[in-house]
Amino acid sequence: MVVVMASSLTVTNTLSSPKLKTLYKKLSIPIPTPLSSRLLYNPKTLSSLSLSLNLKHRSFAARADSQNGAEPPSHYDFDLFTIGAGSGGVRASRFAANFGASVAVCELPFSPISSETTGGVGGTCVLRGCVPKKLMVYASHYSHEFEESRGFGWKYDVEPKHDWSTLMANKNAELQRLTGIYKNVLKNAGVTLIEGRGKIVDPHTIDVDGKLYSARHILISVGGRPFIPEIPGSEYVIDSDAALDLPSKPEKIAIVGGGYIALEFAGIFNGLTTEVHVFIRQKKVLRGFDEEIRDFVAEQISLRGIEFHTEESPQAIIKSSDGSLSLKTNKGTAEGFSHVMFATGRRPNTKNLGLETVGVKMTKNGAIEVDEYSRTSVPSIWAVGDVTDRVNLTPVALMEGGALAKTLFQNEPTKPDYRAIPSAVFSQPPIGQVGLTEEQAIREYGDVDIFMANFRPLKATLSGLPDRVLMKLVVCAKTNKVLGLHMCGEDSPEIVQGFAVAVKAGLTKADFDATVGIHPTAGEEFVTMRTPTRKIRQTAEGKTDSEVKATAGV
Ligand SMILES: Cc1cc2nc3c(=O)[nH]c(=O)nc-3n(C[C@H](O)[C@H](O)[C@H](O)COP(=O)(O)OP(=O)(O)OC[C@H]3O[C@@H](n4cnc5c(N)ncnc54)[C@H](O)[C@@H]3O)c2cc1C
Asked: Would I find NADP among this entry's keywords (predicted)?
């Protein structure tokens, strides 16, 4: 370890040099000018300059050409300063450090509920998203499995009971373990972790709770937070953060929203025996998903006891004297809820981040605008993950963070690849999908063949439950390429993850047909669907014609 003191402004710059300059030219990034003397001799900055740096790090501090031809050294505390240690920030920081950069990341103090002042290393996915949500999904599955098991001969003398506090305690212990693991991942990579709220002061300076740090590059990976529209009574509403950390199980919940988070929580609470009502503004859930999948999942979810209230917009929440909540919508008032949850979208955490001051461009929703390399309108400032509102999923934030580290510190400009990103909805039953929906494929390719299977899975034959599975392949009629693959039914996220490789690789329906199935599984349907359910052809007038060849569901 070496301590770099303020006086060591002449720190050797191993990449000042043609290599770094070529990279900067490739990316058309202006080579930054030296730091102002204000910054260099600011006592707050000086204190940060004495941070211990791991020797394995090459210094990427560059020299900028001066007016008189001499090359005064330009030095930053760090090559990369990341604001936000969620999926994207941790990935970019860790990779950058592994490539030899000196890296710091700042993150808000831990709390299960996020706010302007609380967060925690690991970010939304680990602490308030994918992980706790999936643990709750597991917890809620059992009630369905108990029901299924009866047809297989299981008997329960006493009805199984669920203990909410055990679930919460175990889930919270797991979150603590995970945030610890993420801290270790950063530490082992040699990344300096600073606890506090980051704010940008100028294109190379970050303020963390009053302390200034300078960096050649700044990465903004602050993610987003739940958005609740301001209507009367919105103070009684819980969001997804709170829904994952309730002190007791809701007796009866209204969930407002038709997106994936709303459906996942509906399944969680329903499985844990809460009475669940879902209110959606549109006619259908899951805008953007394949139309048939949207219809199918809503039907299957309804069969499990969740009540949908379609085309209802919330107008107010009223609290009664007995503490129960009513939800007033454009169609009437539904009463007697112990909880009202809004899953009405998320907004990027870009307020009070100093972005307007330095000129980072944002959309009207507050998302940071970036180019294909995740560079903002300010050349030294970059952004990845949900804060850019591209595809708001953990693996995408990871991909963007990894690509950025390569671009900046491995002399390998890398664009994230957004083609065929698979995704899942952990509703009950769940959905897995990759590639184009039927509607997108028709728009893009015109002539497509649809292969579909809608069947009762083997398990349901003995369980006697009305569970079904829908599987669908969208194939380009001209090239035979599988453009999209969709499934709703047990295990579909696991199955589709495997098939996503085939879709991403551009395999054809013939490749699928040539693959031997695994029997007896639901997944084998994807390689045994021989006859198109319908052939869709663009007519000369540009109209879509559908020729139905076989009926699904046989
Ligand atoms: C309920 C829910 C379920 C989800 N389920 C899934 C799923 O199943 N699969 C999936 O792929 N995705 C899922 N997601 C989405 C996924 O969690 C996000 O896409 C992912 O976490 C984005 O990563 P990120 O790095 O952009 O931001 P985040 O993970 O949100 O990290 C941002 C970090 O920045 C910190 N921060 C904010 N402001 C500051 C500041 N000024 N200074 C310092 N730190 C700051 C925050 O505290 C936070 O830790 C889910 C999200 C939610 C809400």
From this structure: yes
- Quick check: CB of 430 below 6 Å from ligand 1? no
Three-state secondary structure call for residue 338: coil
- Beta bridge partners of residue 200, listed in sequence order: 206
Indicate the top mutation candidate among 110, 115, 130 to test ligand 1's pocket, ranked by most ligand atoms within 8 A of CB.
130
Q: Give DSSP secondary structure letters for 489-546.
A: STTHHHHHHHHHHHHHTT-BHHHHHTSPPPTT-SGGGGGT--S-SEEEEE-TTS-EEE
Give the CA dihedral 482, 487, 492, 493, nearest 10 degrees: 60
Q: Is 53 annotated as a binding residue?
A: no
Q: Tokens for 550, please give them.
A: 């076989």
Any ligand 1 atom below 6 A from CB of 123: yes
Tokens, residue 205: 């300076």
Q: Give residue-wise pLDDT tens across range 450-465.
A: 999 999 999 999 999 9
Q: How many domains does the chain have?
A: 3
454-462: long-range contacts, CB 8 A cutoff, minimum separation 24: 454/296, 454/552, 454/553, 455/525, 455/553, 457/489, 457/490, 457/522, 458/520, 459/148, 459/490, 462/151, 462/152
- Biggest CA pair distance of the chain: 90
141 is catalytic: no
Burial of 236 (0-12, 13-18, 19+ CB in 10 A): middle
Q: What's the CATH code of the domain at 330?
A: 3.50.50.60
Q: pLDDT tens digits, residue range 487-502? A: 999 999 999 999 999 9
Is 245 a pocket residue for ligand 1 (Cβ < 6 Å)?
no
Tell me which of 91, 121, 124 to substitute to probe ligand 1's pocket, judged by most ligand atoms within 8 Å of the beta carbon. Answer: 124
Q: 490 and 426 in one domain?
A: yes
Residue identifier of the C-alpha nearest atom 9 of ligand 1: 130
How far away, in angstroms, is 500 Cα from ligand 1 center? 24
Please give the residue range of the domain that contains residue 381. 78-226+347-410
How does pLDDT run across 222-245, given as a tens digit for each residue? 999 999 999 999 999 999 999 999
Res 410 pLDDT > 90 = yes
Q: Is 305 known to sit in a ligand binding site?
A: no
Q: Is the peptide bond before 520 cis (omega within 30 degrees of 0)?
A: yes
| Residue located nearest, by CA, to atom 37 of ligand 1 | 222
CATH number at residue 528: 3.30.390.30
Q: Is the CB of 222 under 6 A from ligand 1?
A: yes
Could you tell me which of 515, 507, 529 has the C-alpha nearest to residue 451?
A: 529
